[in-house]
Amino acid sequence: MNSSGLQFTSMTELLATCSLTEQQTRQFEQKSLDVVYQSLKNLQGSAEKARGDLEQQYRLLMKAGELGNIITKSSKFARWKQNTANAALFYADFEKVVREASNLQSVLNIKYENLVRRADTQKRAEQEAADKRAATITVDSTMRAVRAKITPRELVRKVENDTPKKSALIFDIRQNQSDAIFYNRSEMITVIQVPYDMIDSSLTFASFRTNLAVTQRALLARLSTSDYVVLMDDDGPELVNTSPLPKSKMSFLFKALTQYNQSERLRERPMFMEGGFKMWKAQYPTYTKNEQPVTPRSIPSDELDDVISAYHRNYPMISEIRYPDLNTMRPEPTAQTPPAPAAPPAAPALNRQSTIPPVAMTQRPMIPPSLPSSTPPAPLKPVAPPTPPIFPLLDRTSKPSTLPERPIDPSPTRQNGGGEVKRPPLLDRATKPNAQNAQTSKQHEAQLLSIYDQMDMAIHRVVDDSTRNKGRGVPGAVGLFNMGNTCFMSATLQCLFQTPGLAEVFTKKVFVSKVNTQSRLGSKGVISAGFASLSDMIWNGTFTAIRPSRFLQLFSDTVYQPLSDGRQHDASEFQIFLLDALHEDTNQAQRISFEQNYHGGAGIAKEAADFLKKHYQFSLSPVNRLLGSITVSEIRCLTCGASSATFEENTIISVEIPSNSSCSLDMCLRSHFSQTKLDGDSRWNCPKCKEPRASTRTSKLWQPPPVMIIHLKRFALFNGDFEKNTAAVTFETARFDVRPYLHEMAPAEKPVYKLYAATLHNGRLNSGHYTAVASHLRSDKWLRFDDSVVTPCENFKVDPSLAYILFYKRC
Predict the structure, then answer these.
(1) Could you tell me if residue 95 is inside a domain?
(2) Number of independent structural domains in the chain
(3) Burial status of residue 409 (CB atoms within 10 A of its CB: 0-12, 13-18, 19 or more)
(4) Is residue 61 part of a domain?
(5) Of the candidates 571, 578, 608, 615, which has an alpha carbon nearest to the alpha carbon of residue 593?
(6) CA gyration radius, the chain
(7) CATH code for the domain of 157
(8) Mind listing the pLDDT tens digit for each residue in 174-190?
(9) What tens digit of pLDDT does each residue of 720-734 get?
(10) Nearest Cα to 181, choosing from 165, 170, 194?
């Protein structure tokens, strides 16, 4: 199968597979016409289920057409059509088969022609690029060695004019981000807005992702697929030998993305924006927008918006927090103390006015403009340590935090080794007066339940009459209507609904007790209420299929607007956004910050226990305790042997596919959990040698979770379009043993898993189709979810080239 999702390259090749064999033809000619007609209908039904796979659909329709010809040419046909009720239905079905096959043939002819044209174009582009590389290899090597900056004009020209086209990921680390980059194709130039006060010398990739806003966090997955990674400040950084000035915020972020990053491997060394944002705005004012917040909606579009607005109005302390200027509390820097950066201004309250008129719920939800990403306020401690979740689950992200609520250590040491770094005293933001009491807690509960009820009523209002007339559905086997390229959401939700643990937590009776309304990174329970309402409706089985348009609008308003723009999107990206939002909503930890200063080696088991103890005081929710995989990355100096260990947690393990034809999941995971060499610009700053040294980095799984989710990275941006790796990836379904990927000193308790769900993708990202297969949480019977259609499957059997996200649970 090629990158376009087509198995063949011409109609001639396809037609050779569309005919019945001679033996099959003779067998059908000997059967009664009623039996042949029933077989025609079965093939017709199978063709409808194959929607998205145009070639398979066409193949089935052509075989159904041959059965129709067998019926019409039979000597029994004249008598059969007079004496049977099937005759009238036969003519209608046969005509439909012929019509649909004819339409598909026209579509496939166009696709095959485009495929040939595209292959020729790509071949020419590759040849031109090869010639260009061969002609400039010496010059390019020299530039790589000495040039680390790129101007905005150069970057945009590479994205728009290079053959093949390039993609870029920009990290905006300015203190004032009221004006921001806005490129109309966000998949080509993605911007991640980084809170200024998040960056210091203890920053690792794990802590960076942990403290990034939920609206930005999932975008980090684009690191490994972007051609250029660019760091941008206001004026452009000061460089020393092509590297940022030591002990600067730019250098701390640079090391977090390169040395202390075990999750997303970069294609090239990060570059720096020459002239910073000021030069970008001067050269591309059309690609710049003002991020100042808008005012609240004056007229809610429906009752759900009304109760959410009231919820935030009644509890403004949840989202509007102000702190004094930290600069007034910091001493003058000394020779040993690097100057402390100024604290960012307090983030203005977010307002949400929209001039978009309310829409009827039967229409596609209208999404208001996206909200600004501003510097998030510091997190708060709950009034008392909450009770941990009732089931033993693990967290998702390692949290060596840079936030100012950590206890002040008189002599803190640098994370992952390095010399001692003196720190000025920091204000403890965890002592904010807490106005919450028993009465306000009840009010919180009441309003969250009101959000839940309004979501339930909104979904009821848009249920189709055809669905109402079908009676009750099967609990846990309710379809989700496609509202226009929303199959990426439907397939993901169906797998999560069948995930053990989530279905028990996100219910009307339970979710309210898990929400931490003081969390600065979550939605204060709004997304949890909407998700719980949707989950309960699935498990109530009131209808055979529902239309989750209001949940999509709520998700867009609250978490990430671009995913509901009517285009097809990446299911894994949506899943990360959703799980992060649910996690932050229900994070009941006291958020006690800590720094990792582990050395690995013989004492790594003791260090892991220390990490987990501290980690769960910073991050503890039902989501990450259920899905969080703990991994460890050890860096070892090749000169002196000094080492450092960093622990990290993820709710989804994303792995590269090391082949374009076929491989196994075992190969993908062994490649992911392997050793890499840090050399050149990526050398490790060895704390013993006191200078950058060539080193090795080894990543391993330390503690697998109760539920393990593995994402196969099939999509990459190439020449302005998403290319898909259609390699057949084989995987275990009954006994998946994770011991080969565990650290040799990690505990190996219950290392065997079995598959319970999978997200499948057929076709290309922009023109494909997502479906899901899952084992019913209560009956263990396999089901196939194709938007609104849910059908049983006797056994789990899918094309290994379609598998995209695999869901495993511990045996």
Answers:
(1) yes
(2) 3
(3) exposed
(4) yes
(5) 615
(6) 29
(7) 3.40.250.10
(8) 988 888 898 878 778 99
(9) 667 888 899 999 999
(10) 170
